[in-house]
Structures are given as structure tokens and as C-alpha cells.
Amino acid sequence: MSKHKNDEPSPEVILPITPMLDMAFQLLTFFIFTYNPSGMEGQFDLSLPSENEAAAKETKQPPPPPDPDAPPKIEADVTIVVEAVTDDINRGEIAKIHIKQNSGSVIVGDLKELFDKLKLANETATEKEVIKIQPASKLKWSNVIMVADTCRKAGFKNVSFVEPPGFNISVVN
Amino acid sequence: MDKNEVDVLFVNVRPFILKDYESKGATALQKLTDKFKEGDPFIIILGEEPMRFSEFKFWLRNQFNTLKRTSKDGKVKTTIVMRAHKLTDYDQVYRVLQMCKIEGFRQIKLRAVTKSVAQPI
Asked: Residue B86 maps to which CATH number?
């Protein structure tokens, strides 16, 4: 077998830079135009008793048999009751907001007024961080969050949601 | 670190609004309209078919039992992150919270959109 000697120079590799750049920019443009960012989200931590707290209470005294239907007891000086509009056009919007305290109850018309009243309530409250919100059953979630957000801005960092009036627990079981 | 400590379960709650799903394609839309009427509340979980509340309850129970069985210390440390659509009624959100509590999940977080326009889940 004879050895074949190749004296010819190897073919030069040419990278087609221009069309590659063109393609890269086209892809970049495509992704910029089709990018659809999702809304930024905030987060509420719910006030459920931790397992350690529950265990510590159990060691002190034997607790009565737990009632799974009973709502959790939350100590708060201020409770916000939000009523919802029930007509077909504005169904689920805020109708009235009640601020319930030990000193009595006041009705506020909008979130701005709620904020002002809560700011004052926060100064006198013994439980400065805790507030309860009792929205109506048919209140839209966006309105619930707006009320909760107003409470947080007014200084109540621990917002708890309680059972809506007339809630039938049997629908859960 | 125990795997369950960082385990998160996203639960999306929303009413069925036909126009939000018109772009999903005829087959998927037909499947949804067979199951839900306009305004029906339902649950969406990644990797699962959209569920009615009754289905979700059993799914949650199975999930809890599986997590408990596979956990090293027999405790479920999974956090439920609940994302409710802005048009969901409060009683539906509360119902889901109660279901999570009854089935044994203790750590629950509520998410809400803070900026921009809410996207359909």
C-alpha cells in the first residue's frame, strides 16, 4: 500500500459572521417584543399557630377536645368589617367599611379615610401589630387585598383574615 | 437540609372566565367548558388538570398523606402558597384556606400582585 502524501494546503474555514450576527439580532428582537413579564407579587404570612407553640401549650394543661370547625382565636384590638355591594353591576366592590374597637364602631367611606383612622387607632391600640379583617362573602379578592394593604401601611403588620359572616363550614367538609 | 423544609405547593384559585382561555386552543377550551361554567371557581396546580373544589380536597388529602409518608420525621413542612385571582370571591378563598387547614397543612402564605396588570393564571 502506497502512502499518499498530501501537499495541498487544507481549505480555509470561513465563518459567515454577518448572517450570524443578523440572526442573533433577529432572535434578540423577537424575544424583546414577545417578552411578557408577569405581575410582581407580594406575600402575606398567615397567623397560624406554630407546631412548637401548640406542643408547649399541650404540656402545660390538657386541652379540651379540639373543634375543627371553630375559627382560631386571635387577640386584636381592631377589627375591620368590610361589606360588599350586591347589585349586578358593581357586585363584589366595597360598600362600607366598619372599624370596630373596644371604644365603639365607626364607618368609613373609602380606603384613604380608613388609612387615616387606622393610623390613629394604631397609636392607642395595645396590640399594635395585630388586626383582624372580616370581609363579606362576596367581596372580590382584589378589594380584600387593598384593605389588607391599607392596614399594613397604617402600621398593623400582622393581618389576620376571619370567617366571612354566614359562612357555611359544611361546604368545606 | 431536609427537603420538605423548602417544599412549596402553589395553589391558584380563580373563577372560570371564558375569554381568558379563548387563546388556549379548541381542544383545551372544550375540555374546560365541559367541566366549568362561566364564573365557576376552580383550582389550578402546576402539572395537574384544573380541579373543582371537591376534587381539590381529595387531591390535597392524598398529597398530605404522601408527604407525611415520605417525610423523615413524619411531619409535613410543606408551605402552601395561595394565589387567588382578583375576581375571586372572598368566601372561595376562605374555603380553600379551611381545606388546607383541615387536611393538615399549617404553613400557608397568600400571594397577591403588587404592580402591573394581573395575568390570567
From this structure: 3.30.420.270
Q: Count of domains in chain A?
A: 1
Number of separate domains in chain B: 1
User: What is the span of the domain harbouring residue A131?
Assistant: 74-165
Please tell me the pTM assigned to this model: 0.72
Task: List pLDDT tens digits, range A97-111.
Answer: 999 887 788 898 888
pLDDT tens by residue, A7-50: 777 888 888 899 999 999 999 999 999 998 877 777 776 655 54
Closest residue to B108, CB basis, from A37, A48, A137: A48
A92–B contact, CB cutoff 8 A: yes
Contact B89 A163 (CB under 8 A): no
Q: What residue in A sits closest to B56 (Cα-Cα)?
A: A172
A63 occurs within a structural domain: no
Q: Which run of H or E residues covers position A48? A: none
